[in-house]
Amino acid sequence: MIAPCPRCGKNNFKKTCELTAHLRRKFKCKPIRPKSSEAFIQVEKVLQSKDNRAYIFNQPIDNPEECKNLPYMPQLMGLIRPKITEVLQTELHRKDQIKSAIVALSLYSITKRNPDGISEITYIENHHSGEMRAILSEGDIDEHITKSAGKIDNHIEKTLKKGSGYVLKRILEIFI
Fold first, then answer.
1. What tens digit of pLDDT does each residue of 138-176 get?
2. DSSP state of 81
3. In the predicted model, is pLDDT for residue 38 greater than 50?
4. Are residues 63 and 142 in the same domain?
5. Which of 86, 87, 88, 163 gets the most CB atoms within 10 Å of its CB?
């Protein structure tokens, strides 16, 4: 039996090469958006694996007030800065100049109480974007990453402090 597509869930492949062609096609399939909280819990278990050394910095925090005070984005950008630098340098060598923006996809939870006293947790994804910047030399790359990380961190702080009750669960993806 051929496994389903990890992005869109399509599962009618007869051969492994059909799945491979589906995954490598130019226009990528759209990912499935989980509709229930169980699906998000599964994602958290995968991302927060204690066996995966890449996520050792990601420690759960029970107190939301303490979570608001932690500079999470700068820590994360510090860990992935070498890879972002490598990608931007590769693109800069291919072209004379590039434009780049860094965007973080974050997962928030908000707890709402129904009139009957039952609390319901809702998960919300939010994109936080740094500014689009022209990169003319390799010296501009570090400045771009630093400024983008600061701006994204400010967006996250504003989201947490605006009084909506949002709690940052994790940063799911970072796009360049």
1. 888 889 888 888 898 888 888 888 877 888 888 888 888
2. H
3. no
4. yes
5. 88
Residue that has been written with the tokens 């799911």 in this structure: 172
Coil, strand or helix at 28? coil
- Residue 132 has a CB neighbour count (10 Å cut-off) of 11
* 132-141, long-range: CB < 8 A, 24+ apart: 132/99, 132/100, 132/101, 133/99, 133/100, 133/101, 134/97, 134/98, 134/99, 135/88, 135/92, 135/97, 135/98, 135/99, 135/100, 136/96, 136/97, 137/92, 138/89, 138/92, 141/85, 141/88, 141/89, 141/92
- Provide the token pair at 171: 């940063």
Total tally of structural domains belonging to the chain: 2
Do 68 and 16 sit in the same domain of this protein?
Answer: no
Classify residue 16: in a domain, yes or no: yes
Residue 32 identity: I
Q: How many Å apart are CA 161 and CA 65, to the nearest integer?
A: 10
Residues 6+ apart with CB under 8 A from 20: none
DSSP three-state, residue 38: helix
Among the listed residues 156, 128, 169, 168, the one whose alpha carbon sits nearest the alpha carbon of residue 44: 169
Instruction: Return the residue matching tokens 């992935």.
Output: 80
CB 168, CB 67: distance < 8 Å: yes
